[in-house]
Amino acid sequence: MLHIMHADFAAPVERLIDELKHLPGIGQKTAQRLAFFLLRAAPEDAPALADAIRDAKEKIRECSVCHNITDNDPCHYCTGATRTRATICVVEEAHNIMAIEKTRTYSGMYHVLGGSLSPLQGRGPEQLKIKTLIERLKGGGVEEIIIATNPTAEGEATAVYMSKLLKPLGVRVTRIGVGIPVGGPRVCRRGHHAKSDGRPPRPVIHSSP
Amino acid sequence: MLHIMHADFAAPVERLIDELKHLPGIGQKTAQRLAFFLLRAAPEDAPALADAIRDAKEKIRECSVCHNITDNDPCHYCTGATRTRATICVVEEAHNIMAIEKTRTYSGMYHVLGGSLSPLQGRGPEQLKIKTLIERLKGGGVEEIIIATNPTAEGEATAVYMSKLLKPLGVRVTRIGVGIPVGGPRVCRRGHHAKSDGRPPRPVIHSSP
Fold it and tell me: In the beta sheet, which residues pair with residue A175?
C-alpha cells in the first residue's frame, strides 16, 4: 500500500521543491535531492543559479528574422559575415540549430518554426512561424530551403507540408538526411535520405535534440 | 570520434546551462533541456524558481538544537508540543528525518550529525555534530538514543562509534531496524536488525534518502 504523504519540510523548502518539480523529468525525489543540494551549496552558488535564470529570462528574446533565441536581435546567425544567405535551414526548435552547427558542415541561414504540425495537440500551420519564412523568400536571394524538422511522424508531416507550400515559390526544397549517429548502436533503422537531385549526397546529419 | 565542441548559445543561455550543470545528476544535455524549458516557460514561471531558490537560501537556517534545516529556530520537531523529549533519533542528514517521519511511528526528538564518519573523505568525529548531542544528554530527561545512520559502511561505522561513546553516559542506545522496504523487490539481503533488548521488535524502517 502506497501513501502519498505530506512532506513536512519548512515552507520555503517545500516551495523550492514544488518549483523544481515543474521542470521536465524532475519528480518529487529528484526535486528533494536538488533542493537539499541547493540548501547545502555555498551561499554564493545557489543565488548564482537564481541570477542566471532571471538574467536569461530578461535578456533572451526571439530573433525577429529567424525566431532563434538570442540576446542580440537579429541573432548572430542572421548577421554572420561569413554565412551564406542563399540557403535557409528550417528547424522545429531553437536548440535544433545546435545539432546542425555541431556538424560544422553548414554555414547558411536558419528558420525556427517553433514546433511541428500536430493536429492532436492543436498545432496547425497558423501556430508555426511559416508566414515570416515566406516573407524572407519574397525578399529574394534564397536559392534553397533545407527542411530539417525532426524524424518523427509530426516532423515528417511538417516537412511534406512545407515542401508542398514552398516549391511553387520557385525555390529548391530539400529534406535533411537522417542516419545513424556516429558511435551509435548499429540497430536496423528504416533509412530516410534526401531525395537525389543529381548532386553528390549531403553529409548525414542526425538532428536529435 | 567524439568531439566536445563549444556550444554556440547566447551568453546568458550558456551561463544558465553552466549553472544548471552544477546540480547533482545534471549533465550537459539535461542542463540544455532544462535551460530551454525555462526559456520557453511563461514569464512568471522561471522567476518563480529563481525566487524560490533565493528565498530558501535566505530563510533556511540550521536548528540550534538538533541541526535540522528550518525556517524557525528551534525547529518544529524540537518545539513540538506532542513530541516526547525522552528519545533522540540520530540521523546523518536533515532529509533522513523525512524518511522516519513518513513511517508515522516515531514522535521523539532528532539530532542531525551532518554526515557520517569517513576517514577517506577526511570526516572524523570532529566534523560531525556530536558535541551538541552530548550537551543535550547532559541537560537530562533523555532515556534513549536511536541511531538511524544509513545502512552503508560509513553509517554502520558511525553507529558503532556513537554507541561506544554514548553508552557510558547512562543512556539506552539502540540501532534502527533496517529491512526490505514495503513494495520493494524481494531480493535476498543480509539482514541488519536492531539487537533484541527484551522488548517487542521496533517497526522496520527503511531510511534510504
Answer: A147
